[in-house]
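Follow-up to my earlier ticket, as requested here are the two runs.
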Amino acid sequence: GRVAEMRQRKDKPATPWLWAEFSNSARADDLRLRHWQRAANVAQDYAFARFNKRTATVAYTDDEFEKLVAPAEAALGWSREETDTLFRLAALYDLRWYVIADRWPLDTARTVTDLKAQYYAVCKLVLRGRRKPAGAGPLADAIPPGHPASTATVTAKTQALAENALAEYVFDRAHEDKRTGQLALLYSRSPAEEKEEASLVGEVRRIDLQLRRLHKEAVAASPGPETQMHQFPPSLVEAILAEAAQSDAKKKTLKLRPAPGTVVLRSARFGVMPSQVGISAKLQAKVDALLTEVGVPLRPVPTTAVCDAFDRLRQDTLKLLALQSKLFDARAELSVLQGVPPPVRPGQPNKTSRKRKIVATGAAAGPASVKRNKQQTAAAAPAAAEAAPPST
């Protein structure tokens, strides 16, 4: 057990440690410190120096500045001293713009947006100027000269990729001004404004939950397949209404035309509805059910005038059902927005009104019925006691 494990550890020799000296490649000076290390694995460099990562920045020479940047100084509105200071701070603070603005040593006031715009504009001028003599090849791979050799941990590949990206980057100053202005407005809110915003967000969430609940109730209140007398898919509703509008515009009734050379009974027109939107048998059954409800025979005397009138009636009935479905959907959306219970689709019993009717019936009975029930219970008690068998 544990005792045997402790004995085995005592039998093993202790691991030797050394008070060893080490250097730190993340520092610019040649500082030498000491710490304890295992004798079997003595490291000359500090183990955490590898985490000293630097951002790839651009640096220019005096010749590049005079040839590429100086001609644009008037347009940029920056002096050589300001630009040199900007690039020195950008390399020192790894493009942390708010830190650079805070450490800005010159008397000329520059905002964070000004610093960004000048840096990216000069970078684009320098990098595109370097590309011209070299053709379409990659940009310079050298580490910027502003970095000390002992602290520059930017690889040549990372530097080249960063410069390639900067050469094509377009800094949108108008968008940056808008973004920083909105950010400043956000951080300058008073506690009262923050509280009001929190209350508005809570109200929006409450309304959203209520709309979801009403939507679920509307879905639950939708009729089943046996009672869906006036429910259509939205696409079918629009197709029916478009066909009806086209038919009304042409003042013409759709008719079923038999193929040339065939004999068709005129009464066969009663079996199929003339429509171009693909009326299914289920939808045709709804139309027939509505015609039967208003007392129209489904197979009248098949004269030409009667068949034409019957076709027009069925087309109007189909249009009526489509309009009823569209009206119901619009009322359902309106009820959700108003926060009231959704309407009941035609053909479905109103459960809410039924519950109210039951409650109203119970309330209408009043105290008289309660008193009568008590009297009947009291009269039945002695009879039940006489009929009960004697206890042993």
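Run two:
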Amino acid sequence: MLMKYLCTAFFCVFLIVNHATGKEFTEHDMAHYRERIKSMFYHAYNSYLENAYPYDELRPLTCDGQDTWGSFSLTLIDALDTLLILGNKTEFQRVASVLQENINFDSDVNASVFETNIRVVGGLLSAHLLSKKAGMELEAGWPCSGPLLRMAEEAARKLLPAFQTPTGMPYGTVNLLRGVNPTETPVTCTAGVGTFILEFSTLSRLTGDPVFEKVARKALRELWKTRSDIGLVGNHIDVISSKWVAQDAGIGAGVDSYFEYLVKGAILLQDEELHSMFLEYDKAIRNYTKYDDWYFWVQMHKGTVSMPVFQSLEAFWPGLQSLIGDLDSAMKTFLNYYTVWKQFGGLPEFYSIPQGYTVDKREGYPLRPELIESAMYLYRATADPTLLQLGRDVVESIEKISRVDCGFATVKQLLSRWAEPAFLSTLLQ
């Protein structure tokens, strides 16, 4: 998971500095940071190859590996698009061949439906669509044919049993060999229901099999029907009964990518239904959760505040706002989040907005990329030099607080720069 975050973070910062035009940053500055980012990526990537392959992930403090999501050498899938963005066609081609030769989805493992979709299916689809730019030999009929596409389709078919519920909303876990366990809980998070339309519709359009897009759309439409009278959705839902189990409404953990996929799905598919769904949610979110350009958690039926906190996962929101053209709101919220970054040198998992400090036991920073992704989208839309400063700060912070001999490690506890001369804790996990 950590390498996934790093790949996304490095990718976004690289794109920011690669398209920089701000007067405060010279071409020499840009070239310097591009090379820094490449060096950081290869420090993590080579550490994985040397110490953790073929496991899913590197453990950077112990310099070994572990399987976490199904034993697919997942870090290689995560890294493929970044390798090409950095210009390394040779390694892209090598890794693509390694994956084709070694991945087996007929395995008796329990896999997260959500994670397998966004990381395995999504990663393989991205690699397939980038394979022409990477100089790979293409099959006749590409992009509707190819080994990476077939792998993505095979992985997605392993997930289809999870959608066989009375509502069409999927279970959260599926066994890749045996399907859904009879004792599997029917409770899953909102994002686990609504984060399939990008990968599954792409699969349907490329393979000609409508089943993937069909199940993804049915899940979205069933989730849409469960909105409260004030237009909000909760955090966890029973996919058998459509009853809400956790009724906190917000834009952060457990919900976030549902909204993201409505917007990006609308853009990718030119789909007015998805666009209209998001605009209705956006109106309710503004009316009930927005306070001074922050977003609180509220009770989904009443709109009363349940948690006045900022979660680091919410930092994707300004980027999403930029995609729908709401740049003024996006920048105001982004600057709130950037203030937290400047206070701590990273985003703590939970930040109490009234207290202006971290929440107990949620002070960690697992190198999440959401704020950097928002900066990338906003910079492409505005060319505001403040966003270049964020890119620079990210590079310097990650190098200072997270770099270890075998990659980059999660920071266990962030301390305020404003309160602690040492700037940040060095407690790593």
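The only thing I checked on run two: The first strand starts at residue 57 and ends at 59. Let me know what else you need.
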